[in-house]
Amino acid sequence: MKEKYINLFTDFGFKKAFGEEASKEHLISFLNTLLPERHQIEELQFCNNEYQGATALDRKAIFDLNCVSATGEYFIVELQKAKQNFFKDRSVFYATFPIQQQAQRGDWDFRLSAVYTIGILDFVFDDEDNAQRDEVIHRVQLKNQHHQVFYDKLTFIYLTLPNFRKTEDQLDTLQDKWFFLFRHLHELDDIPPRLREKVFLSLFEKASIARFEPEERQAYESSLKYYRDLKNVIDTAREEGREEGRAEGKEESEQIGYQKARAESVMKMLGHGIPEAEVAKLLDLTLEDIQELTRGRSNDE
């Protein structure tokens, strides 16, 4: 049976539900469940989601959503569908752009507004200890050697949504309900009784595939296929890398196996029609890396 509602982990679905002027209330409601009382949002505006570097040679950053509240806080919201190398490094790099944007010409006392980077993840971190691995929310700030917050205006919030396992009957908070929808909206046939609040009724209306114009439906289907292909390629490549490494029984061989699998994943993703720039972003490679890997595979064949 065809899905009735969109998958929020597709690019189209995420932008439809949270990235349009008409769906701004959904984004505000969702973000407020993650923010401290002092930074609760009443109104926000969307900003350009593409930042150029300081010079033509600098690397640019492209965010899924980039917005600023009426009181001046900046929010980067990133949807991450699959694991990628140096993901945390990328988050820190992206956070520098709204920080630099606040610089003022002439006399300036360097006072900054708060910056929040929110990562909505369709995977879990592998490098957390056992006590943290099952947590849904990972909130990160700069701290000193005494574990005291050194700077409270830069916050990273990562949501490892595969760890959210509550059922409909267990949804007590607004945050629970948003997390549940990220995981299960596309599986629902009707609106659950606990989700009949105004903001969610509005979301279900926006998310109803039957309401889409033909071009919207086509765009969503393409986005859904891309999401499914991407997850399959990434998951397969990583498993092949682990298996090859285990077969060799050595850390160095495991790394070699992973590198081979990564090259294979590049070829598969390109074969699925995923653009080189997107492949580079997902695997944290440069376009030169992509071209070198494809040349190497061609030579091997």
Task: Provide a descriptive summary of the structure in words.
- This protein has a six-stranded mixed sheet. A two-stranded antiparallel sheet has the order 2-3.
- It is globular, with a radius of gyration of 21 Å.
- With 301 residues, the chain is an alpha/beta fold.
- Strand 5, helix 3 (87-101) and strand 6 form a beta-alpha-beta unit.
- The chain has helices at 11-18, 24-32, 87-101, 130-133, 174-184, 198-207, 214-248, 251-271, 276-282, 287-300, and strands spanning 44-46, 50-51, 61-62, 65-69, 74-80, 115-121, 137-143, 149-160.
- The relative contact order is 0.12.
- The chain has two domains: 11-211, no CATH class; 215-300, no CATH class.
- This is Rpn family recombination-promoting nuclease/putative transposase.
- Residues 239-253 have a biased composition (Basic and acidic residues).
- Residues 239-258 are annotated as: Disordered.
Overall radius of gyration: 21 Å
Numbering strands along the chain, what is their spatial order in the largest sheet? 1-4-5-6-8-7
Residues in β-strands, percent: 5-15%
* Mean pLDDT rating: 83
Characteristic key phrases:
301 residues, 2 domains, six-stranded mixed β-sheet, 15% strand, globular, Rpn family recombination-promoting nuclease/putative transposase
